[in-house]
Amino acid sequence: MQPTTLHYTRNSLFLAAVSLSVPMQVHADISLEGLQQQISDLAQTNRQQEQRIRQLEQQLAALSRRDGQLAGSASSNNSGLSSRNVGTDAAANSAAMAGNNGPALPVVSDVPKSVEDIYQEASGFAPGKFSIEPSFTYTHYDTRELVLNGFLALDSIFLGNINLDKVVSDSLTLDLTTRYSPSPRWQLDIDIPWVARDATYFSGGAGGSASTVSQGSVRQGPTLGDISFGLGYKLVEENADWPDVVWSLRVKAPTGRSPYGIKLIQSAGNNNLSLPDRLPTGNGVWGITTGLSFVKTVDPAVLFASVGYTHYLDGHFSDISPTAGVTQPGDVRLGDSWNWGAGIAFALNDKLSLGLSYSQQIVGQARVRQQGSDWASVVGSSANAANLNLGLTYAYSKRLSIIPNLSLGMTPDSPNYAFSVKFPYRF
Question: On the chain, which terminus has fewer CB atoms closer than 10 Å, C or N?
Fold first, then answer.
């Protein structure tokens, strides 16, 4: 009986070993599948959390735009003028949070409203789909011309007649500009001006013991000026190496009152003074202007520059003579002009920015041709106008800004000064 008992015991041990090995294998298989499922669940949870983070960042940016609040001067310096591009430090932090294999979290940056105003002023390219911009411009000219008829005695005493001619001119222009962007790279605009002018002319002479000084004024109420149409295209988007580059094309139509054929009327009681019978509000011919604008953010500043060229088409007029009672048909060819400028602006905070710029325009000599004659140059028609501009932009609200600008003349051909205020409103 003992052998039989031993054989049964060995069989029992073999069956027990087999019965133990099967559950261990099944348990190992179940653990592997469970771990894979847990990894998949965690990955899904991670994606949901990342999506939620994006939503919260967008809500935070929207609240910042609505309330116009800043996190502090330090964050203003980091996200101010350079916030149009993603910051390097913020991008590095985002990549570190996401890991090498996970999706990168977007950096939501809120562009300060004052920076958008700077960009629009510098490039002429307004952010957004549609905007309207009324503006007022006051311009003051004060020119003097001293005419000497005589000679110097002993290099110090003038013997003869002295005529002092002076012209003081003031103009107020209301411009209504409308801009439309069918796509982020294209922009169309139209500018409609109304011009009011007031000019006072002085003429005086001195001879012997008698002297006379006379003056006369001519006023022109608000009248339509030259309407212009513009087209803009963004050639290059700003990046680390290149600025924004915007190409523009503008056509100006002669819808204002022409300066040709205006008659000079002699002032009563003074043979030295003649007054125009009306004042012009346009240049009378078609003009085509093309140019490039460059805008580059260099924290904490915005650098901008522009260059342009204007060509005028020949115009034919039924009368170009300034003599009263005389009608002389003829053609006019205005001199082409080059203009350029550059400047810098600083965003002090989300609502306020300051700018300083210089602009210059070189105008060629004009020519006229009377009917049946050859072209003749107009002496003194060329000009060199340079201006120093001081600007301020204030974001009154998310849609409305107030942009005053003071322009100071640097050459005799420039206005003494011009002051303008613009009110761009974005829909």
Answer: N
